[in-house]
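Q: We require from you a single protein entry containing the residue sequence and its fold in token form, and nothing else.
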Amino acid sequence: MKDEVERAVEIEEIQTSRNLLEQLAYPSRNIDYATRILNEFKNLGISMIYVTSNKEPLLKILGKGYRGIVLKVVYRDGIAVAKVMRIDSGIESLSREANMLELANKIGIGPRLYSKSNHVIVLEYIEGQEFEEWIDKISLEDIDILKKVLREVFLQAYKLDSINLDHGELNDLREHVIVKSDLTPVIIDFGKASLNRKPKNVTSVFSYITHGPQSRKIMSMLEIEEPPINTVKEYKVKRSEESFKKLLKSLNLG
């Protein structure tokens, strides 16, 4: 099987190709909505969109969610991603998600937000592996590497807790953390993030590594027989730096 071939296509070419244009309106292919999205792309400064071209050209979709699809694009002469609101998302705009990401960016978390409109968010392109793929591939001997990445994920979760911003989906790291080649983890997808509920970022990460699909491998590598429930309960109540450090230590990450 041949590798997927991708190329960047000028916005003007998208405009003249009904097949490609309609794909901007996922999943309905509504031409009016697709045209609106294309106009927002132009206004935001997106000049090209990546497509795959094995048989008929398809937009290069990096991810799909309930609220949007993520496309690979060219923005101001550099590679970026554009999150496009699904026509059936049930929300009015992506403004709230953009605002949540903007807050996270202020404390150095998440892909950088470059630009936004009602239905499109332009973001930094993060190259790496989804957490599930990364954890699946590392060797059981790579204990120090695992500890480095998990420690940083917990630290980012703690920073989000500290500004009362709850990501909302960190109990499943599989598609919400990308691990870069330099072992820097990046928390992505702030679609369900909120300031209106008690933040549970640290406890959600704890839940994933102790009860998630890769928990057996992770806990074995961390040399933990049972989840340290008492320390996570203490953190949940106090949410202090001291209780956070105590939690990390109980996970052999201190």
User: Anything to note?
Assistant: Residues 192 and 199 are 12 Å apart (CA to CA).
